[in-house]
Amino acid sequence: MPGRPLDTTLVTDLVREATAAPSMHNAQPWRFRHRPGSRTVELRGDPERAMPHADPDHRALHLGCGAALFNLRVAAAGEGLRPGVRLLPDPSDPGLLASVHLTGTDGAGPEEGGRARPGTDPGLAELRPAIPLRHTSRSPFTDRRIPEDLRARLAEAARAEGADLAFPGIWHLRSVLSLVQDAEGRSGTDPGLRAELERWIRTGADVSARAGDGVPDYAFGPRPYGGRATVRDFAGRDAPPDREQAVFETSPQLALLGTAEDRPADWLRAGQAMERVLLLATRDGLVSSLTSQALEWPDLRWLVRDPQTSMGVVQMVIRLGYGPTGPQTPRRPVEEVLDLV
What DSSP element (H or E) covers 337? Predict the structure, then answer.
């Protein structure tokens, strides 16, 4: 059967799926542009949603946009299209993060050398059903261990996007957990970081009044009572006294996602790899949350790297396991993030 025509209706649907991607504090720092009649969708960063204290170099912004780019590729492949991607296609316009040319009848792999890579990636379309199911879970996970074959497939998914994924051993895991706790303590006493975080917190009436972005109170998760929680405490000192408490894992299953270099193109590749790992994990029954606190402090970020691996720099710490799925968090209407010009 013939596929849907590549018109503004289809492009709007593709972008809507792209925006289901995770981003720091659910700020959704992306904008898309499509010229009706063309076969190209452009992805730009939205500087108004940047975080100058926690993310002065816009690394996290690039990761979130990379995750949205991957969702766009997956959705396009699910429609029988071949998404050819160019990262940072215009050196004179660093705000233009990627262009996606939609052709063909199947999915294409990630960009290579600034040009759309030829060939296909049949695994893209298979991940599409996981896009609406992937949600951040800030609840405790069970002690059930992730099978080694699934760990290997998650690492392979990261490699397919030009990144590495490693599960640290027990000694380095303890180090990472200490670094996360150190970062949480620092952030809680930094007025600039706390003010920046509060910009994206939605509580009480604010949940309905500003329902398009940010982290709503129903997604905070319980207050850690025991164990080694790596989830960010959005409630902070203003948490209601009746907030639920829970015991978290004593040995959470963390994965370090990293790249060889640490440039904007690497951040975009890491964002795509992160989302590919998260969608595969969701499809195979895992739940997840992202832990970036220690990566927001340059001195701590270097220590997160496992010296026993060849990973150059860590771009994200991913908590994986089995447990309750997280709630769906708000997204802005697609009309706010897609320009049809």
Answer: helix 334-337
User: Which DSSP helix (H) or strand (E) runs through 316?
Assistant: strand 313-321
Distance CA 253, CA 146 (A): 8
pLDDT tens across 159-185, in order?
A: 999 999 999 999 999 999 999 999 999
Token code pair at residue 265: 């193109």
* Direct distance between the N- and C-terminal alpha carbons of the chain, in angstroms, rounded to an integer: 30
The string of pLDDT tens digits covering residues 323-339 is 999 999 999 999 999 99
Q: What are the structure tokens assigned to 185, written together?
A: 């303590």
DSSP letters, 268-282, are HHHHHHHHHHHHHHH
Strand ranges for 88-179 from DSSP E = 96-103, 164-166
**Beta-strand runs (E) in 108-266:** 164-166, 201-202, 215-216, 223-226, 245-247, 253-259
**C-alpha closest to that of 255 among 281, 222, 218, 232:** 281
Its pTM stands at: 0.93
Sign of CA dihedral 155, 156, 158, 163: positive
How far is Cα 274 from Cα 294, in angstroms, rounded to an integer? 17
Q: Read off φ and ψ for residue 224, nearest 5 degrees.
A: -65, 130
Residue 29: C-alpha distances to residues 71, 108, 185 (Å): 15, 25, 26
3-state class (DSSP) for residue 116? coil
